[in-house]
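step: validate -> pass
step: tokenize input -> pass
step: predict -> running
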Amino acid sequence: MSAQATGPARGRKLITGVIGADTHIVGSRILSMALEEAGFEIVALGAITPAEDFVKAAIETAADGIMVSSLYGQGELDCRGFRDLFIEAGLEDMLIYVGGNLVVGKQDWTDVERRFLEMGFDRAFPPNTRADQVIEVLNADFAVRSAGRRIAE
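step: predict -> pass
step: emit ->
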């Protein structure tokens, strides 16, 4: 059974895409389909997406959140300055998530997650995170945003 978007999450618009030179689109596409099934409106940018294109899409579509995927291990390089682009565009409150195989080699996930949070991402999902887990987190985050908090605890 899939998690469903209800209450404040239903109808929220999310931008999905694979950042940088990464061509690994399958995971992003599966997540996009699951999010749509759960009631989110998805704008899928596809693979090999420059960071600036996420910002442009967010502005053009009045998006509620950004879902960045990276599977080729270079996410840490591709995502540097990502939050700054949103701040410069006046979108400092945008929810920004990242997930996938974000770094090269076996690294402690706690350290990887910390680095992405320090870069300004609201959440970082480890490899093999299931779509229903992402949907649960999104539902919780959008619910608390309605109450004035940034993300759920």
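step: describe -> The first strand starts at residue 13 and ends at 18.
step: cleanup -> pass
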